[in-house]
Design goal:
It is built from 16 helices and 5 strands. The chain has one domain: Rossmann fold (3-Layer(aba) Sandwich), CATH 3.40.50. The chain has 376 residues and is mostly helical.
């Protein structure tokens, strides 16, 4: 077994099976950031590029009801990007929300206060709950850690489908290097768009016909939509010195937006998976990736991150109630949910998958400089 080690610069550790360290104990992702991101953080040049892109979005969207589409989760990144798009750059976005059945009350509040004050149209696509539930239960039964892929795939594909259907050329995406540079290990965060893997899981563990769920493959998203249909994804926050705490303060003062205890907590299911299921069942704490990204961008100290990691990511006094809520929402008993927790641990390699094809395509794309995965 590999000897335990934690990066001397961030808080990533050997719970990532692919991590490596240099002679100073600094991990490969920290060195990747230093070598590939920091040299390009010339915000004067990036701002010029940002304004050119904004001008193109406006030009392409002239005489249309909307010039871009923003997928809105209620989280900090998409919320701040919405503020920038409208108030700073004068864009006319359609705000698109995908309701997968797990919205927290705070998440709903944060979406509503922003669209109300900005006077925007909000389009909500509600995913068939019986299909969502069946898909999520299939992943529980399969014993794999990729439980949140059900929401992620629905959100991404529904946004892509809507933009394509109504000929909206630009999707503004809240992804960014400032708070999301670090990659999640592929072992725990497998591709939600590997349809070979998904079909094998559903064939073995799901009786629902899944007639309306918005499936979408990685090739459809990365190649067909982008290069054939010309639907462009633009990550606006990569072009500004984005500071998460400053963004929270501004949104609170301007809109009454309220912060979450942690990243991704706008979904109650994601909160449960990342704070309890993943650390307790699989021994992997996603906070290490989230905090390490903030360390690299100077928004958190390593000491603060280590102190936070010394505490459990969930509230021990309320976790039983949360466990019961998740079970009840899924239409099963607490004992049944507990039985899934105790199943043998399985991963993508235990099922049919398209890893070889996806990985080959990813390597080619990265070599050409057109794609950087957020998982590895």
């Amino acid at each position: 077994m590999r000897e335990y080690q934690v990066c001397t610069n961030c808080v990533l550790d050997t719970s990532d099976p692919h991590i490596s360290f240099d002679e100073n104990g600094v991990c490969d992702l920290c060195n990747d950031y230093k070598n590939t991101v920091e040299p390009n953080l010339d915000y004067k040049k990036l701002k010029d590029e940002l304004y050119r892109t904004v001008d193109k979005i406006k030009s392409d969207g002239r005489n249309r009801d909307f010039d871009c589409l923003i997928g809105m989760s209620g989280g900090i990144d998409s919320s701040y990007m919405l503020h920038l798009a409208v108030e700073e750059f004068g864009l006319r976005p359609l705000v698109f929300h995908v309701d997968g059945g797990w919205n927290s009350e705070l998440g709903v509040h944060n979406i509503q206060v922003m669209v109300d004050k900005l006077g925007l149209d909000l389009y909500t696509e509600v995913i068939n709950w019986e299909e969502m539930k069946a898909f999520q239960l299939a992943l529980f039964k399969a014993g794999v850690p990729y439980l949140d892929n059900v929401q992620d795939l629905a959100f991404v594909t529904a946004v892509d489908n809507y933009a394509n259907k109504y000929h909206i050329r630009y999707i503004l995406n809240g992804g960014n290097y400032s708070s999301e540079f670090m990659s999640y290990p592929l072992k725990y965060y497998y591709y939600g768009t590997d349809m070979r893997f998904i079909k094998d899981i559903l064939r073995k563990f799901c009786d629902n016909k899944m007639e309306t769920y918005p499936f979408g493959s990685v090739f459809r998203r990365k190649i067909w939509l982008k290069y054939i249909k010309r639907v462009n994804t633009f990550k606006m926050l990569n072009y500004i010195p984005y500071n998460v705490e400053n963004a929270k303060k501004l949104l609170n003062e301007e809109y009454g937006w309220k912060p979450y205890p942690r990243k991704h907590y706008e979904s109650r299911f994601t909160k449960f998976v990342e704070s309890y299921w993943m650390p307790e069942r699989f021994g992997y704490d996603p906070r290490r990736v989230q905090y390490s990204s903030l360390i690299l961008s100077g928004q958190m100290t390593r000491e603060d991150a280590l102190e936070k990691l010394s505490h459990k990511p969930y509230d021990e006094e309320t976790i039983k109630d949360e466990f019961k809520y998740i079970a009840t929402k899924l239409g099963i008993t607490v004992d049944e949910l507990q039985s899934y927790f105790e199943l043998p641990k399985k991963f993508y390699w235990d099922y049919k998958n398209g890893m070889y094809v996806i990985d080959s395509a990813r390597k080619i794309a990265r070599a050409l400089g057109i794609y950087r995965a957020q998982i590895r």
